[in-house]
Fold these 2 entries.
Entry 1:
Amino acid sequence: MISEPAEASSTSRIPNFFRMPIQARITALHERGLLTDADLRLLESGDHTLKRHVADKMIENVVGVLGLPLGLGLNFLINGRDYVVPLSVEEPSIVAGLSGAARTARLSGGFDAAATDPILIGQVQLVDAADPDRAAETLLAHKQDILDLANSLHLRMVARGGGARDLEVFRHHAPEDGREMTVLHLLVDTRDAMGANLVNGMCEGIAPLVESLTGGKVFLRILSNLTDRALVRASVRIPVENLAAKGFEGAAVRDGIILANDLARVDPYRAATHNKGIMNGVDAVAIATGNDFRAIEAAAHAYAARDGRYRGLTRWTRNSDGDLVGELDMPMKVGTVGGSLETNPTVRINHRLLGSPGATELAGVMGAVGLAQNYAALRALTTAGIQQNHMTLHARSVASAAEVPEGLFERVVEGLIESGEIKVWKARELAEAIGREPRAGAVADDAPTSSACGKVILLGEHAVVYGRSALAAPIPLAVEARISEAREGVHISIPRWGLEQRMPPADRHPDGAPGILATLLRRLELADRAMTIEIVPHVPRAMGLGGSASLAVAVLRALDAHYALGLADEEINAHAFQCEQAAHGRASGVDNTVATYGTPLLYRNRETPAFETVPAARCLPLVIGIGSQASLTAHTVRRVHAAWKDRPARYDAIFDQIESLTHAAVEAMRNGFLDDLGELMNLCHGHLNALQVSTPELEQMVHIARTNGAVGAKLTGGGGGGSIVALAPRARDRVGDALQAAGFETLSFDIE
Ligand code: MEV
C-alpha cells in the first residue's frame, strides 16, 4: 500500500504557470525547490535530452533522437501530498485537462490512491508430461523448492525485500497443436524495478527443475504483461458545487458523467475510446518516467476485458450526499530504478520532480492521473464538447502569444472564440479595442498603471564593453506596474511568474524582483509603508531584453504616481541604475536609460557613460525571437574578455569593425534606409559569430527570420542563449509566425 510521506513536499499550485514563458516556468520550479541547481542548468541549457551516442547503445541502427514535448500536470494532491506530474505527450489539451481536473479534485481533498505489492507474473509453459494433471500437482507440491531455486538466482532482489513469492498452476488444451499444456505462474515481487529481465531470468532458471520434476518439456519461459497482481485503485469525490460549468449546473454535470461512464461499462466501442483517454494521462507519465508504456497499455486493455467483455476501467457514481464519486482500478506495473532511468537525463529530472517515489507510490500517482484524465474528458464531453474545449485552449495560447495584458486576457479569449478568428493579429486587435474602453469597477482597478520599456540591442553588444558604441531600441510596454493600499507590510504580486509574497525583512538581501523592489523602497524611504505592488511583465527574464531595468522603472513610475513623489526622469533613471548595479554588479546603464526614456539611443562608455538619442526617420518593424535557453551574458562576456586578453590586437580589430557598423547603422536609421540597416545587422551578427557567442538555436532563429523576409536578423545581447532581433519592414507577421511555428516565442512591435 502507498505509505504517507514523512513530510509534505512543495506545493504543486503555481498560479498562471501556463501563461509564463518557458524560462520563467523553469525558474518558478527551481524557486519552489522542485528542481536542483543541476536540473535547472540542464533544462536552461537544453542539455537535458538523451544524447545520440547513448541512444546508439540502447537500440539498433540509430540515426537520431526523437523529441516529444514535456509538460507538467499541476495541482495534484494525492493521499494528502502535492505532486507536480511530468507528462510527455504530443496531443494538445491533455496537460491542461489534467491540471484543471486536479484543481477541482483538490478542492475536496484530492485523490486517494493505493497500490498492491508490485508482483510480476512469469509463465513457464510445460508440454509432453505423461500425466498433465499429475504434473500440476507435483509442481504445487514442490512449490518451496521452485521458489528457493528462483530466489537463489537473484539474491540481490531478495535482499531488497523482493523475490519469488508464490506459484500457481493452470491447465490448457492447445487448440491447434492438440497437446495438453500445464502452465506454471511464478509470482515475483520486483520492488522498485519493473522486473522484466529478472522474471524472465527466473523462469529460464527454474525450467530444468520443472522438467525433471514432471518429466515434461518446457517451452515458453517469459513474463506476462497481464499484470493483474500489481493493481492500483484511485478514487476521488467531487461535490456538485465544484462541478458546475458555463451554462451547466453541477448536478447536471454529475449525472452526465455517470451516464457517459455507464455507456463505457456496457459498450466496447465506447469503452475503447474511454480507456484511450485514461491512457492519454497514464502513458504520458510512463514515457516521462522512462517506463514501458506498451506493457502498461497491454495490461490495461487485457484487464478491461477480464470478465469476457471489454469495459471501461472507471466507475462514476453518486454518494448519499449527492457528490460525484469516481474510481479507477487497473494494473500498474512500473519501475523507478534501472532501465532508461539510468540513461536519459530528462527521465532522472522527472523522477526528482515527483519527489523520487518508489514503484508503488508512482503507480498511485499514475492511477490518479488516469482518473483525472477520465474526469476531464467526460466533463468536457458532457458539457461544451471536446472541440469547444480545444478551441478555448487554443484561444488562450494565442492570447498569450499576442502578449495580451493580464487585465484584458479573459475578455480577449472570449472575443477570439466568438469571432471564430483565433489568430494573434485578432487578439492584438481585440486587446487594443478593449484597452480603449473606460475601466470600470473595483478600487484596485482604478489604481493607475505605469509602464516602462525593455531594450533590444540592434548593434554593438560585446564591443560596448571595450569602449565602443551600442545602438539600442526600446521594447514598448515591457512591464506594467501599479500600487494599491494594503493593511500592513509590502506585498509583491507578479502572477505571470507565479510570485506572490511579502517583502522579506530589510536585513535580508533578496535576489531577483524582490531584490530590485527592496532597493527601490529603501532608496525612496518607503520601506515602512503598507502597499501591494502588482507587476505584469510582458518580456521574459534573463533573455537579454532589459526586463529587470524595465521592472525597476515601471515600479518607480507607479510609486511616483501613488505617493505623488514628483520624480523627474533623470532621478528615475538614476534610481533604476542603482537597482541594476545591485542586481547585476556591473551594469552598463543602457537598459535603465532605454527603459526610462523609451527612445532608440546610441550608448558609449569611454571614461564616462554618454547617451545620444537616435530618432528613426521611418518606423522600424521588429520581431524578437526568444529561445529556450537563458542568455549567459556574464559567461560570454568573461569568455570574450579572456580571448581579448590573450590576443588584444586580433579582438580589438573585431570591436572596431562592430563600432563602424554601429555608426553606419545610426546613419541608416536617421535616413530611413531600412534595407541598409538590416544588412548592417547581418554583418554585425557575423562578427558576433567570430566572437563565438552564438548558439545553434540562435542560428536557427536567425535563419528562419532571414528566409521569411527579414532584411536583417542577429542575436541580441550577450548571446550563449537568449534572443534574436529581426528587422522585417515588409514581413513582420510572416517572420513572427514562422518563428512561432518552429516553437519559439516572439514579440513583435514597431519603433516609431
Ligand atoms: C482523446 O484523446 C480522448 C477522448 O476521446 C477520451 C474520451 O472520449 O473519453 C476525449
Entry 2:
Amino acid sequence: MRRKMVAGNWKMHGNLLENKKLIDAVVTGLNGLHEVGFLVCVPYPYLPSVQNALQNTNIAWGAQNLSQYEKGAYTGEISASMLNDFMCRYVIVGHSERRTLFGEDNHVVAEKYQAAQGAGIIPILCVGETLNQREAGTTEQVIEEQLAAVIKLAGVESLVKAIVAYEPVWAIGTGRTASPEQAQEVHAFIREGIAKTNANVANGLTILYGGSVKASNASELFDMPDIDGGLIGGASLVANDFIAICRALHQ
Ligand code: PGA
C-alpha cells in the first residue's frame, strides 16, 4: 500500500552509547505521530538493542543489507532469517554504496530482494544513476535496468511488498540534492514505467527519495506528487534533523 514514510540509513556509524541517545531523542520527538511510517536501518550488531528500544514505539527498525543466500558456508554474511530473529520488517537492498564499493550488480541485488521477501521482510530497493550517467542522458535507461532485473526475477506483483528508493548517486552524501523537479521527474518515470505492466501495483508503490535530504529541503521534496517520503543518510544521525524531516512529511 502506498504510504508516507521516512527511513533513516545510519550506514556504518554509531556505538551503543551514541545510539541510545539518538534513539531516545527520536522516540520522544516522534511520539504520537502515526500517519507516517518511521524506520531506522542500523548496523547489524545494534539490531538487538535497537529492537529493544523501539518495540512498542511508532518507529520500525531494519537492516542495511542481507545475503542473497539462505544459509551455508558464506563467512561474514547475514541471512534474511537472521534478520527475522530481530523482527526486522525492512531491509535496504542495492544501495549505491553496495553497488559501487562492494560490486553488487543488478542480478545480485534482485536475488537479495527476493531473499528478503522470501522471509517476509520488505526490501527497500535503491535505484539511481551516477553523475556520468545523468550527464550522458542515460538516467532513465539505468533505472529501468535496475528495476527490470528485480521484475524479471520476482515479478512485477512482488513490488506490492516492496518499497523503491530513488537515490541519485551524485546526491548521496554530497550536499547536492536533486531539485524537487528533478526528483519528481524520475519518480514519475518509475511509477509510469511500472504502470505500463500493472497500474494497481504502480499506484500502490511507495517511492522514497534519498540524497542529501535535510530539514531545510525536505518539505519541498515531499510536496511532489510522486515522492512518498525519504531515505535519509547523514541527517538521520542527528536527532533534531531527523525529527524535523519526519515532521516535514507529517505536515
Ligand atoms: P545522505 O544519504 O542523506 O547522507 O545523502 C542517503 C543515503 O545514502 O541513503
